[in-house]
Every structure is written in C-alpha cells, then in structure tokens.
Amino acid sequence: MARERGEEEDTGGTGGKSAPKVKQRQRKKKTKESKTRTVHANILYDSAKGEESPNRHYANNKIKTTKYTLLSFLPKNLFEQFHRFANVYFVFIALLNFVPVVNAFQPELALAPVVFILSVTAIKDLWEDYRRHRSDKEINHMDCLVYSRAERRYVEIYWKELRVGDFVRLRCNEILPADVLLLSSSDPDRLCHIETATLDGETNLKQRQVVRSFYDLDCDFNPLKYTSVIECEKPNNDLNRFRGYIIHRNGRRDALYKDNLLLRGCTIRNTEEAVGIVIYAGHETKAMLNNNGPRYKRSKLERQMNVDVFWCVIILLIMCLFTAVGHGLWMFQYGDKRPVFDVLSPEGTDLSPIMSAIYLFLTMIIVFQVLIPISLFVSIEIVKICQVYFIHNDLELYEEETDSHLQCRALNITEDLGQMQYIFSDKTGTLTENKMVFRRCTVAGVEYSHDANARRLAMYQEVDSEEEECVSHGGTLPRRDSVTSHTSARVVLRSQSTKSHRRTGSRAEAKRASILSKHTDITPDPQLLDKVNECSSKMDFMRFHSQSLSTLSSDLCDIIDFFVALTICNTVVVSSPNQPRQKVTLDKAGMVSFLHRVINIFELKSPVKTIEDFIKRFTPSRLTSSNNSSSSSLNRSNNRGCSSLISSPSADSTLTKLDEEKTAESPDEAALVYAARAYKCSLVGRLPDQVTVELPHLGKLSFELLHTLGFDSTRKRMSVVVRHPLTDQITVYTKGADSVIMDIIRPPDTGTRKRQKKIICRTQNYLNQYAADGLRTLCIAKKVLSKEEYACWLQRHLQAETAIQGREELLFESALRLETNLHLLGATGIEDRLQDGVPETIASLRKAGLQIWVLTGDKQETAVNIAYACKLLHYIQAKFLCSSSDQAAKMYLTNNINNMAAADLYPSLPVHRLGLVIDGRTLAYALDRSLEDKFLAVARSCRSVLCCRSTPLQKSMVVKLVRNKLKVMTLAIGDGANDVSMIQVADVGVGISGQEGMQAVMASDFALPRFSYLQKLLLVHGHWCYSRLANMILYFFYKNAMFVALIFWYQFYCGFSGSAMIDQWYLIFFNLMFSAFPQLITGTLDKDVSAETLQHLPQLYRSGQNSEEYKPYMFWMNMIDAFYQSLVCFFIPYFAYADSGVDLFTWGTPITTIALFTILLHLGVETKTWTWMNWLSICFSVALFFTVALCYNASCPTCYSPSNPYWTIQRLLQDPLFYFLCIITPCSALLPRSITNVVHSLSIARVNHFIDFIVVSKEHPQPEPGHHGVAAQPATSFPVHQQAPPKRQ
After folding, report:
1. Is 1185 annotated as a binding-site member?
2. Is 426 tagged catalytic?
3. Contact at 8 Å (CB) between 168 and 178?
4. Is Nucleotide-binding among this UniProt entry's keywords (predicted)?
5. Catalytic one of 416, 426, 525, 919
6. pLDDT tens digit string along 313-359?
7. CA atoms of 1088 and 1237, how far apart (whole Å)
C-alpha cells in the first residue's frame, strides 16, 4: 500500500508530460499483478473497512464442493441428464404422446418410464450431493487458532472464517486449514514435520522449514511486530512448486520455496507448535485445485454400442415409414368413402391419406419406442459397479505384506481390460522390486566386489524361496517358534515386525520393516574397510597434531571423500515418525554447563543469505567436531541456542534426541547411506543448514550445508555445497548417472595425467561390467571451490533464488555453472531385484497375444539384462538401434530402419522373434514425423521393444504414437511420477503402489500392488468383464427388437393404424420391470470359462482382442433372430385363437406371456454359469409379471377405454390352451438358436480336447530320434536370473 501511495504521489507531481510514462507503468503493474499475488498481514488493517483491505479480493476459506442448491437442483440436474442423448430422445417421445393426433398411450402412463429413470438418477445425485454437503459443513466448522489484534492472543474460529493474511497457530497432530507460510516453529531446529498422505498418498514424514528471515529469532514470534509483505505466484495446482519472496521494511528480499509452505490437508507431526500466515485459502489452495474427482473415459465397447444404437434408430424409422406408407395406401383404397372407424382431425374434418400417414408415422415412433433400450444405459452402469466390487474384493489380488489391494479408480472401462493389445511398462519399481541393495563399488580406480555381502544375500534368497514353497504347497507358513538358526530367526523377526506395523494401519511402515531387516545390514569388503580405517586414523592424527591434510595421499583422500559423499549427498532425514520429539530436562547447573559448552566448543552458522553475509563470515573457524556424544545434537547457533534456553519460562533447557530411523525419498539414497554406515560412516542428523556425520576415529563432524541442488530428470544428478569441517574448504559433492557425470569430469592435470586417465578408464570399465550384470550405476564426484569462485557463483545463484518468473530455468543454469570440472571419486553398483512372478507373467501375457514394450530411463546394459532376466528378450533375438552422438544417431537410425523395414515388413514366419533395443537419443529421431512410420513398422514386426534412457515425455510420445497410428488398445503401467504422462495417455493406465510415492496410482485407472497381478486382472477379470457386457448389450438389443416386432406384425391385420394387441401397461413396463432383473444377474456373475482355465490357457484372451464377442455381424444376427422369434410368438397364438371370438387383450395377453417366457428362456440358453441367483431372478420376474397382471386385471375395468382388460389373465389361467401355447411356442422360437449352440459346443469340445493334448505333450515331450536341443548360452549373466535360458527344440 505504501508503494502504491508513493507511486500516486510521484504521478501527481510530474504533470501532464509524464502521462504516457504513468500509463506504461500502470500497464506493467497490471501485467505483474496478473502473474503474482501480494499478501499483507490482516492485523494491520483490522480497523480499516472491508473494501480497504488489500486481501479483500482473495477467496475465503469456506469450501463448497456441492453442485446444487435447493433452487438449482431440479433445473441443473435435468440439464445435466439431458446431456445424454438417450434421455432427450425418450422425453421427446413422452411429450409427443401428449399430442392428441399422434398419441398412442395414455400421456401420463407414457411418462412413467422416463420419469422413473430420471428420478432414480436424480435421487442418486441428490444423495451424493447431500453427502458432500455434510462433509463440507463438517470441514468448514472445524476449529483453528487465529491471532486477534483486539485480544492480543490466539482465538478459536471456524475454518470457514479464516482469511488470506491471518496468522495461524498450528499444533501437533492438527490438520492444516489452508496453505500457510511457515514463520515460526517450536522445534529447536526451526523445522516442522508434516504428513502429506491426503495429497500424494505418501506416509513418510516431510520436513518444512521456517522462512530464512525468521530463522534466527531470539524469542517467540510476535505477529504485532510483523511488517513484511509477501509476493508470490498465483494459485495453481502444482504441489511441488512454490515461488515468491518476502519483502521486509528495510527493503531486503528473501526467497520463498516449497519447503516454506504447509499445504492444506496435511497433518502436523513431531512439532509441538508452529505459526504461519495464510497465503492461499479455500478453493485457491493447492489441495482443492487438485481435487478433480474421478476420471471419465469411454470404453471401446461403449463406442461400438453407440453405433448399434444408431442402427436401431434407423430400423425404427424404417419400420415407422413402412407402417405410415401402408396406412396411407390402406386409407387411399377407400377413396371418398371413409371407414366408420376413421379418426378425424382436431378440427373435426376428414384427413387426407397423406396427412394420416404423417400422423401415423409420429404415432408409430411412440409405439416402437421400446426398440431403443431406455434401461440399457442404467443397466450397464449397475453391472459395471458390481464388476468393480468383485474385482476389488478378489483376495488373490491382495498383498498381505503391504496391506494393499487392487483399486478401481475408473468405474466405466472395466471391459477394456479384456481387449488390450499393447502393454507399455516401466522397469524400475514395476518389473523390479525397487528395493535397492548395495552390491559393489569402485573407488579411485580400484574395484571392491563385496563377495561376503553377495553370499549373505544369496542365503536370504534361499530362505525366501523356501517360504514361498511352503506357502504354495501348504497354503500357510509353518510356525517358526522352535527355529534356532540365525537366518530363520531374522526372517521371523522381519515378519513379526511387518505384522506389528500392519496392526498400526500404516502400509509404509510395513514396507519399511520388511526392507530394513534384509537389505540394510551390509557386510563390508575387508580390503576397503581397512583402507577406511587407515585413512580416518591418519586424519585424526593429523588433526591432533595440527598438520595439514593436504599431505594425505590422494587415494586415501578419495576413499574418505567417497563415503562422505555417500552420506551427505542425499535427502535422507534422520527422524522419529511415530512419536513426538522427546525432551531432556536439565537443572540450572546443568544448563549453565551446557551453555558454556555451546559457546566454547561450537561455532555453527546458518546458510548464506547475502553476499555481504558471505564476505563477513567467510573466515577460518575451529573444527566443529567432538567425540562427546552428548554434544552431537546441540542447537543451531550460539545466539539462538542461548536465547531459546534463557527464554524458557521454567528456566529449563532442552536437548533433542535423534532417533536412528532414516527416511529417504528414493531407495537408491537409502541403499547408499546404509552402505556408508557399514563402513562406520554414519549419518547422524540432517538440519536445514548442517549435516552431522560420524566417521571412524574422527567422531562426529558437522558439515555446514550451504546449498542443495536437487535431482532432476534433465541434469540426472544432485549436488550439495558444504563447508568441510576439517579443511574449512567449500566443497561440492555430486552424485548422478554415469552418462552425465563422466562428461563433466575435469580433464587430467599435467602432473597426474597418467594416473587420472587410468582411474577414469578403469572406472568406466567397471561401470560397463556393473551394467552388464544388471546393476544400477551411479558415479560420485567432488569439486573444491575457492572463495572467489564461490562468491561469483553465489551472486548469480541468489538472483535466481529470488526470481519469481523463470526461477526453475535460472536455478537449472546456476547448477550447470557449478557442476563442471569435477574430480571423479568412484562409482557404485546397486541391485534392483525382479519382482516375484514377473517372467511368468510376461510369458503368459505374450501367449495371450499382448505386445510388451518396456520404456525405462536406465542405461542400455542394465535394461537389456533385466529384459533377459524377465524373458522379455532372448539371447539370440536382440537388434540394437543405439548410437553415441546426435548426428551419428540420426544417420545410424535412418540406415538401420530402412534395412530392417525391408527385411521385416514381410516376414515369412507368422511370429516375429526379433527384439528391438533403442536408446533415448536415437528414439528422439525415431519419433520425428519423417521416420515415425518406418520406425513403427519395424517395431511392430518385432516380438518385443525395449526403449532405454527414455525421458517421461518420450514415454508418452511412444504410447501416443502406437495408439493413434495402429488404432490398438494400449495399457501403460508404472510406479513413479515419471510414468504419469504415459499412464494418462494410454487407454488404460495402471499404477503400481511401490516405493516411489503414489503419483502414478493417483493418475491411474487401476492400481495394483505388484506387476504379477496384472495377469489375473487382464486374463481373468478383463475377459469376464468384456464377455459379460458384450453379451448383455447384444441381449438387450435382441430383447427389445423381439418385443417391438410383435406389434409390427400386428399392423398388417389392423390397417397399419398404430393399434397394439398388447396392453399399454405391459408395453411400457415390460423392459423396465418384468425382464430387467435376470439380465443384471447374468451380466454380473456369468463366467464363460473358469479362472483356472483362463490362466492356464492365456490364448483364450485373444477373443477379446479380436472383439469376437461383439462383432458388427452379431448385432444383425441377433436382430434377425429377434424378428424370427417374434414371428413364431405372434403367429402360433394367432392361428391358435383364429375364429375363436376372443377379444383383443385375451389374444394379446398370451402373446405377452409367451414373449416373456421366450426372452427368459433365451437368456437361460446363453447363460454359461448357473447360480442360485440366476434361478431366483428368473422366478422373481415370472412371479412379478403374474402378480401385476392379476392385480391389474382384477382392479382396473376402465383403465384403457374403450377396451376392457378386466379379468383377462384370470380367464386365461383357466384355459388349457394358454398353458400349451406357453410351452410349445418358446421351444419353437428357440429351436434354431439351440441347434446352433449345440453345434458350436461340439466344435469347442473338439478344440478343447486338442488343446489338452497339446498341453500334455508339452508337459511330457517325446524327443525325436537323432535330434538334440541346443541351449543358447548368454553372453552375460544377471544375478536375478539364475536359471539357464530355455532350450529350443
């Protein structure tokens, strides 16, 4: 506000000459305001009027997720329902029946079906909206503490009363009411721990830190002293980004990051109290902006059904037109002599034959309206909900270890699971466990194989395989109470720990318990351990004698720096996620002693904020190390430590105890930290401005953490800038992919060129060897900065940090400037094991006709060996399209694609056995428009495709290319945030609830605990869902057409007058009530093949891929069958009652009854699996019909004037002819279909017998004389794949 007033004063004083400048300045200001938000403290404007508050334009914190109000419900709900064309059609037909000239039924009765359908949907929507209203009311009336200037304290108010600019006090285990900028925390380290499970599904705690300018407060935060202004970005839905800066009264600006923002919906943990200012409220919070609701997709079967609905409309119009022409000709034959039963016009005059035909055309649309199934859409929704319920409750898709089960997040594409043709899969975490195990490393050109650790892991693998064998044979694990072996005891402890965590309800805890016990206890390599001890002891000796560490040999320096980098170059947090941080109370004497120790021993500093701060502070300081364990977790700085102790009301000081549990954002980081711990290089604590490690002989060292340059998919590395406590140098430690680290290694110096070149060459050879063994490789490097270099880089980096627009690009450029000319320390090899059942699952999916592509960001050697292990590739099949440079990649790709296309587009064998491997650099050119068709032709002819070193964007581009060009059904499956774009592009997206968070799950249509569950989801549930819905839709079309055709045949005997021999009550409610329930039961429970058979014979899945259950000709065959059955059901009663003198309804009611029996019997013929629910539904339908008929005919003598349905069904039940017709007519109508089904069943039996013979032959092969199998020996081995490749006969 002050700035605005100042600008106005300047404008007023310049006069008219500066008017253009003022306008230009105002335009710039408006542009700036449109991109940023300025937040002031509300307590500064409590006395001002509402229209003067600078935050008045921002949304309040009241949320409203309901769609309707009492006044808008009816019109808005009807408007939404009329978006469905079928509802508009039926309302039009019902309203058309109100026109006297063309009406066919009683207008009120004609409205009943459509009103019923609309009412059911409206009641469902109303109930859902009412539940949302109750939830909104409960949330809006939750309490929170807001500072009141009038009362000078925090007062309780409702969430809905919270406004942007309010100061909020947050307490432990409290849910955040809005997006709050953290200004103060009771935590001694100025941290606040939050749980973000409601946002991203991750249950591990995350740290948020106080804004830098409020970091060193000497006392508690006082809102009345707050005079700063916050400028940040506009509200958006990006949970991982927050940009802005805070402007203080003295003009100083401090950057704001996502680590300073607490998001609405998160829960405060391990922090007794925190204070912040509201930045975004209500519907402008990031949580509400991400609340998009369930996804809606249209399935392939639904699109085919809409085409057939269109054909039904065409048939309806043809029947109406035929009837209208027939009526016109019938009227024309009378000439001027009008029949006595002729219907006059509304004016009372005679109608011409043409007008009569036109009116009758509209009348027949009303009569034949049943041809368009009004209940089909509602029935499909009900069946899909039931299918989702049964899939969700399948116990075989439940993983007990992590207490997770399959989730159906998209309710309307279950049938698409049975029609998949291409599967695109991620590798890490999807095909593999993503539980990283440290296996090998190389330091300073020397390789350490860790053989003892490999033997320990092999022992665990044997124990796990024995457990799995016990489960597969015995069904349950035997009791281990009496087991005495050390290995078995550890397995029991692991399982018990997992169960205890599962009882707490935390899936993440169960996973963590199962991982830690097996993979964190690493057996160190003896040779490397001796070198670490030797190095640390020498450094301790030099430190004690105040000798320079530069005299230490370079090999030993590299070793200790290697493990320091493993320990601190990460985001691993030492925390206690299950309980609040404990306090240790000291008496006054202990407090004084403690303060003296703080002042005399420690000189810890906060992060660098400005250039002036850097120049003022950058002087050598004493070593921040101590062997005293009680001093390991002291407060951050002298001033803050003293003030926090002295300001305590009880004059008691606090000392935070750190738990030894470590939380990592990725399994790679955790594996490296535990590897360093095996060599006694332990991570003790991590705070915003320091990292504390414990080294052998050196004790605990506190590295001042100046900057953290996080990992991103473009740089493929992360770096930390620290001040080394032993050398007092600014050191950069970098960890990343070998493909990028090796390119930024410093060229060898003149003096040590031979040695450095040898180390780089050896390290590269070891990296290739690790990759060939299927290990994930990382390179470790460092760089020492001089004061001048760091000051120059820091100046531009601080400018990038405080920028709002383009901050990510500026920070990226800043990181690139720092990460150059690195010194190579070594490399690591981490093993990522295959998930159980992955090779078998891939083999089954291949037999089912599914093409499997793997899209991964790993390097080529690792990806290829994983592909060999999971049987995606075979050792004689791979064809590589890879190159080392951009220009070479383009030329190489063009030549190879042309050659391969010429050789593979027209293969002689029906099954292609070539596997294609392509890297990301080459893939970028393959996706170019000039080459994408040729690349796709080559890839399509291959058995498998493996894309390595691919980016998230390339993954989505590959899926989109295959889906759009080949017009096939695609499924994408992954577990990480880098798979989200691929999952969203595919027809069906599947997320794995693995180790990399829940972003993939939240973006998916289905979520699975493991990749192997995909086999049953597709081959069993997918096949069933597709088969059930396809047959149900065809049955709907048949049933409606058969019933409508009965009235059509009657038009030939009533002068095409639009009359019906079926009572209008039966005509209206036949499909809606009498025949609705059995088809719902069959569509939900019918199984054409058992689950065991579908998994044993994956080839049966091809029927869904080829749409064999729902082909266009099947619709027409059902229509022909429907018209044939209607002919039988019409003419047999017609000839039976000919010349009998019965009235119209006495003849029409048997036809209605026969039609019902025929339709139900037809459903029985098509049902493959009979349950008690099928029998019950059919009996219920028959009983319902006769109950309604008896009641209606007994109580409604004048419902259909001038006809009289009174006592019709009662008389028919006394007539033996009625029973004879009900038996002979359905049997005659279904005779052709029954014969066809018998012939089809016999042919299927022969095929099944042939398949059984093939299966038995495969299980017991008979070797041919003189022929021997030749085993294909692999060129490389992979540790997970321990069985030999299959022999070829």
Report:
1. no
2. yes
3. yes
4. yes
5. 426
6. 899 999 999 999 998 888 888 766 666 556 655 665 667 788 888 88
7. 13
